[in-house]
Amino acid sequence: MRLTTKGRFAVTAMIDVAMHGVRGPVTLAAISDRQGISLSYLEQLFGKLRRHGLVDSVRGPGGGYTLGRAPELVAVADIIMAVDEPIDATQCGGRENCHDDRRCMTHELWAGLNTHIFGYLRSITLAQLVRQQAPRTTEVAVMHDHRRPAGDRSTETAPSA
Prior knowledge:
A hairpin with a 5-residue loop joins strand 1 and strand 2 (about 65). The chain has a two-stranded antiparallel sheet. The chain is mostly helical. Helix 1 (about 5-20) packs across helix 3. The termini are far apart. The protein has one domain (about 5-135): Arc Repressor Mutant, subunit A. It is built from six helices and two strands, in the order H-H-H-E-E-H-H-H. The model is unreliable at about 140 and about 155-160 (pLDDT under 50).
């Protein structure tokens, strides 16, 4: 199984919408800027995500995209399948015809791997991925100026004689 940029970018973009969509619709241009994904590529992905009900589009000024359902109800497998990303480690695409129109000797091995991969991707939700990002996005560098204001000598002690 090979996950291409299509699946990776779709998951990344959905995390972005989930994180930034609480303030209103998220534009593809904003996602493109934050994530470094081509705007035209995002347009293709979001067309597919919208058709699968994973995002809703809002037209007009202030428009963009919002999640089509609660992030707890969106599995990573849903996102990957929506953008037509195959989750298949077999050579034959599951058709059992990879060795002279017959099943190869390792077909069950790769089909079993597919089952495990799909189960794992089905078990991870968009909400979980957003929570994993929270510590990174909420860290704020706080700078403290430990210098005393000029002329403040109230805490100094007199020199010893």
